[in-house]
Amino acid sequence: MAEADPGIFAALQPVEERQVADASELDAALREADRPFVVRDLVSDWPLVAAANRSPGEARRYLLDHARDMDFTVSTGESGSNGRMFYDEAMGMNFRTLRAKLPEIFARMEAEEGKPDAHPLYIASTDMHRFFEGLAEANSIDLAGRKTLDGIWIGTPTRIAAHNDFPDNLACVAAGQRRFTLFPPDQFRNLYPGPIDNTPAGRAISMVDFHAPDFERFPKFREALDHALVAEMEPGDALHIPSMWWHHVEGLSRFNILVNFWWRDTPRWLGQPQNALNLALMAIRDLPQAEKEHWRDLFDHYVFRNRDEDFAHIPEDARSVLAPLTPQSAEHIRGFLLRQLNQ
């Protein structure tokens, strides 16, 4: 895979590195962190990392020993794309998504390995518990009781456009070298996000090619780079990506494996903020400006400011969804919305 312009990445501030002696220190670091940090060798004792350090073939054999007899989803990109999984010129995708058994996918990866015109192959976020038996248990990390979604990402050299995720993330490199380029949430305008409904994997992505940024088309990207952090990672290293931080991810080796753990500090019954944004696009964005200003004021009153004094005139036991939410009142809102949307 061709290297990116070193002038872009070499000038970036490195992500802070921390040392943690045990699960308690890791828990404290995760709870207090509002910026990314790297812990070197955090998962270097994993059997998967040990297999990968021996060879890509050993890593594949280790995964096959644990894989269930199921069809996996794999994306195959274009030859000559330099591993970039992105849009094509018509704003479709420049990759195809296929279903196949893991031995077949790995055989294809091995056959493509090292070819200058290789088609990138990428198994994106795959549930370790559902698709593998015993893999998650043998390659785990103590996250102090956090309820996590445990995913594995497997591929040849790839470039995944900058995007963000709502949950917090601990991303652990199990095989190959990775480069993460990260941006604070407030830099989203300077990253030029694409569509929010037509996306490669469910999240809006930056339209900027980090290997060849077009500063005439994307001039504010220069400002984003002033705030960027970069993490160059080896097998066994872990990176904490806080909620909503943008991250551009590159698998730099001929065979790469990433294991990540997602979690929320808020209960899942609160729902996904992205759904509220999508609904507001449909119901509010195209209203006359005066009406939009009124709805902005209502959102500020009920959602963003949300002060007790604003609702003091309502008896406390009659505030319904204006009171702090519970699983029951959240379900009440969800049911109400579904009924309204289906009318």
Task: Tell me what the structure shows.
- By secondary structure, the chain is α+β, with helices and mostly antiparallel strands.
- It folds into two domains: 6-265, Jelly Rolls (Sandwich); 269-341, no CATH class.
- Helix content is 30%, strand content 23%.
- The protein contains eleven helices and 15 strands.
- It has helices at 6-10, 23-32, 47-54, 56-66, 102-112, 128-131, 135-138, 221-226, 273-283, 289-305, 327-341, and strands spanning 13-14, 16-17, 37-39, 71-77, 84-85, 95-101, 121-127, 149-155, 158-163, 168-175, 178-183, 229-233, 238-241, 246-251, 256-263.
- The strands form two sheets. Strands 2-3-13-10-15-8-7-4-6 form a nine-stranded mixed β-sheet. The chain has a six-stranded mixed β-sheet with strand order 1-12-11-14-9-5, with no helix packed on it.
- Helix 2 (23-32) links the parallel strand 2 and strand 3.
- The longest helix has 17 residues, at 289-305.
- It is globular.
- It starts with 5 loop residues before the first helix and ends with a helix.
- The model is unreliable at 1-5 (pLDDT under 50).
How many discrete domains?
2
Order of strands, main sheet, comes to: 2-3-13-10-15-8-7-4-6
How many β-strand runs? 15
Strand proportion, as a percent range, falls in 15-25%
By CATH, the topology of the largest domain is: Jelly Rolls
Largest sheet, strands/sense/barrel: 9 strands, mixed
The end-to-end span amounts to 52 Å
Write the layout of secondary structure elements.
Blueprint: H1 6-10, E1 13-14, E2 16-17, H2 23-32, E3 37-39, H3 47-54, H4 56-66, E4 71-77, E5 84-85, E6 95-101, H5 102-112, E7 121-127, H6 128-131, H7 135-138, E8 149-155, E9 158-163, E10 168-175, E11 178-183, H8 221-226, E12 229-233, E13 238-241, E14 246-251, E15 256-263, H9 273-283, H10 289-305, H11 327-341
Parallel strand pairs: 1-12, 2-3, 5-9
Antiparallel strand pairs: 3-13, 4-6, 4-7, 7-8, 8-15, 9-14, 10-13, 10-15, 11-12, 11-14
Helix pairs in contact: 3-4
